[in-house]
Amino acid sequence: MATSTETIKELREKTGAGVIDCKKALDEAGGNMDRACEILIERGIASAQKKSDRTAEQGIIETYVHGGGKIGVLVEVNCETDFVARNEQFKNLAHDIALQVAAMSPEYVSKDEVPPDTKCDPITSCLLQQPFIKDPTRTIQDLIAETIAKTGENVKVRRFARFELGE
């Protein structure tokens, strides 16, 4: 069964993956859109691991103020080029991460930053391991991996700061 152009276009719009990748995923999934999405995500995650060693020195600093000015967040999200830093999807990722920091108050970006003698639950203390507040079935690391797959660049959260009035 040949994969229709409309189906490829629909999958491309849904995932942001390239046309050829969408066609291959649909062919492999036998035309099943949901399975094709899963295949692209799996490949995207593999792609993200390959890109993790690449330097990410461009990016943006996102701000978020919540609760009538009672909570404020600054988060630095890096990518490889300023072209991707200006991309709407990248900006949305940075905003979602800032919302996450405001809502969940993590202490560290990743497990690697936790001091050896510190006992803490990585799911609550480490931003990248936390379930995403808008979709608890995915973690912040999953969101970053999806963005890497769509942009083709390494993306990292370098640091964040959370301020709460009175603390």
Please tag this protein with its features.
single chain; 167 residues; alpha+beta; Helicase, Ruva Protein, domain 3; Tetrahydropterin Synthase, Chain A; 2 domains; three-stranded antiparallel β-sheet; two-stranded antiparallel sheet; 20% strand; elongated
Descriptive overview:
With 167 residues, this protein is α+β, with helices and mostly antiparallel strands. It folds into two domains: 5-51, Orthogonal Bundle (Helicase, Ruva Protein, domain 3); 58-164, Elongation factor Ts, dimerisation domain (Tetrahydropterin Synthase, Chain A, 2-Layer Sandwich). It is 46% helix and 20% strand. It has seven helices and five strands; from the N terminus they run H-H-H-E-E-H-H-H-E-E-H-E. It has a three-stranded antiparallel beta sheet. Strands 3-4 form a two-stranded antiparallel sheet. Strand 3 (131-132) and strand 4 form a beta hairpin. Helix 1 packs across helix 3 (33-51), helix 2 crosses helix 3 and helix 3 (33-51) crosses helix 7. It is elongated. The mean pLDDT is 87.
Quote the beta fraction. 15-25%
Unreliable parts: none
CATH-derived topology of the largest domain: Tetrahydropterin Synthase, Chain A
- CATH-derived architecture of the largest domain: 2-Layer Sandwich
How would you name the CATH homologous superfamily of the largest domain? Elongation factor Ts, dimerisation domain
Shape category:
elongated
Q: So how many helices? A: 7
